[in-house]
Amino acid sequence: MLRRDFLRHAGLLAGTAPALGALAPAIRNQRDRIFVRERRRTFDPTSWSDIRDQFALTRSRIHMASFLLASHPRPVAEAIERHRKGFDEDPSTYWHDHFQSAEPAVREAIGTYLDADPAHIALTDSTTMGLGLVYNGLVLQPGQEILTTPHGHWSTIESLNLCAKRSSAKINTVALYDDPAETSVDMVVRRMRSSITDRTRVLAVTWVHSSTGVKLPISEMADALDDINAGREKEERVLFCVDGVHGLGIEDVTVGELGCDFLMAGTHKWMFGPRGTGLIWGRADAWDALDPIIPTFGPSVGVWIGALPPDTPYITPGTVHTPGGFHSFEHRWAVGEAFQFHLAIGKSRVQTRIHDLNTRTKEALASLPHVRLHTPMSASLSAGIICFDVRGHEPTAVVDHLRRRDIVASTTPYRETYARLAPSLLNTEREIDRTIDAIAELS
Question: How confident is the model at residue 41 (pLDDT cuts 50, 70, 90)?
């Protein structure tokens, strides 16, 4: 990056049936190729079938595990390809023409979706990267403690372990529920409050547990923390940090309504964003508690080379905490299209649709005498993940049974394993009914 290049661009900162036998895969592949070729270039955001047509997902399977890695909708796929083509044709020129404008545009789109200041949004490659950057960037004083739960993913647990090893902070753990199906808001808030001590500096939780499907009442927890923090100095207040990956893209809330201090999430799951992308949002007065871990390639470089003054307003918490280096820019720079895609559909419509499909699925599962539902029935305590057991069948056997019927499900990657379904915007009521019929066969 030459000094004149930085100066030249700095202004942009402002701105199948068994009878088919061996023929089935060939038929599926041909049908998929035809579908991809003919999918519509425009769509009606009020039509669920039109929305579904924006994805190249095979129609020969029912996709009940789309939360793992998203299929890219047409606007995202086209943005990725546009950037890829530009890099392939003339990578140096394409980089210099876009490196100052692309990421601010992505932050603007995320900020609009979250109702957040783009200056407080850092871009990452995954939820795990965001967790590592936040928890290992925390400035902890001797004697301060971290409170977490046993319900989180390995990425949270290990990030906190690494933080404790580096800082000598003590990690305390509280189970916010025992039987996930019987979770209540009062239980979660009560157990949280009773476990916070005068030495607690960080509360690290997961919004939606991929282990059980429980959705924590983040805003109610934040309200309780406000009461606790009211009598504390800034350096001692409890920082509320949330892994939000399985809530982002479902729940119609803003970061202000959530009330947490930090929200870390990948955007390649429910948001339908490019694979290998994520974000950190931080409250304006919370970033001071965090040190950067990886050097940025943002405007700070402009200060270093003398192209920008040290007090430039372009240096923000979001740019400082965005890891530098050369990333898969064709993916990162296409993140904005995913958020715009959701906004075109409408956040409230997305939330209602996913909750309606999940309620239909849970009620049907609960009606089967050989099925035990682990995820709460209430939409206030669940989102898009449903965990269950089938009597007499291991979770992997349930998933294998469904796959033989062209239904893609999953198991929970935890010590206690359940079968798991995740109805999303890409599913229909008929697909849910077919899935339930297949599970009923296991009685």
Answer: low
Q: What is the pLDDT of residue 285?
A: 94
pTM beyond cutoff 0.85: yes
Do residues 371 and 388 touch, judged by C-beta distance below 8 A? yes
pLDDT for 34 beyond 60: no
Amino acid identity, position 408: V
- 10 Å CB burial of residue 255 (0-12, 13-18, 19+) is buried
**Pick from 312, 303, 338: nearest CA to 123:** 338
Q: What is the DSSP code string of 180-206?
A: GGG--HHHHHHHHHHH--TTEEEEEEE
33, with CB counted inside 10 A (0-12, 13-18, 19+), is: exposed
User: What is the predicted pLDDT for the residue at 20?
Assistant: 31
CATH class of the domain at 347-440: alpha beta
Alpha-carbon distances, residue 20 vs 17, 31, 406 (angstroms)? 6, 14, 13
The C-alpha atoms of residue 216 and residue 188 are separated, in whole angstroms, by 8
Mean pLDDT of the 109-113 span: 98
Phi, psi for residue 123 in degrees, rounded to 5: -100, 135
Is 221:414 a contact under the CB 8 Å cutoff?
A: no
Nearest C-alpha neighbor of 227 from the set 214, 241, 240 = 240
The candidate with the shortest Cα–Cα distance to 200, out of 122, 141, 269, 272, is 141
3-state SS, residue 323:
coil
CATH architecture of 94-343: 3-Layer(aba) Sandwich (3.40)
180-204: pLDDT as tens digits: 999 999 999 999 999 999 999 999 9
Range(s) within the chain of domains with CATH label 3.90.1150.10: 347-440
pLDDT-derived band at 147 (thresholds 50, 70, 90) equals: very high
**Could you give the CA distance from residue 48 to residue 53 in angstroms, rounded to a whole number?**
9
Percent of the chain whose predicted confidence (pLDDT) is above 70: 91
Task: Tell me the C-alpha distance between 370 and 393, whole Å.
Answer: 10
Structure confidence at residue 219 (pLDDT): 98
- In this predicted structure, the answer to whether residue 130 has a pLDDT above a threshold of 50 is yes
Backbone angles phi, psi at 83, to 5 degrees: -65, -40
User: CA 157 to CA 33: how far, in whole Å?
Assistant: 42
Residue 293 buriedness (CB in 10 A; 0-12 / 13-18 / 19+):
middle
Q: Where in the chain is the domain with CATH 3.40.640.10?
A: 94-343
Summarize the confidence of residues 54-83 as an average pLDDT.
96
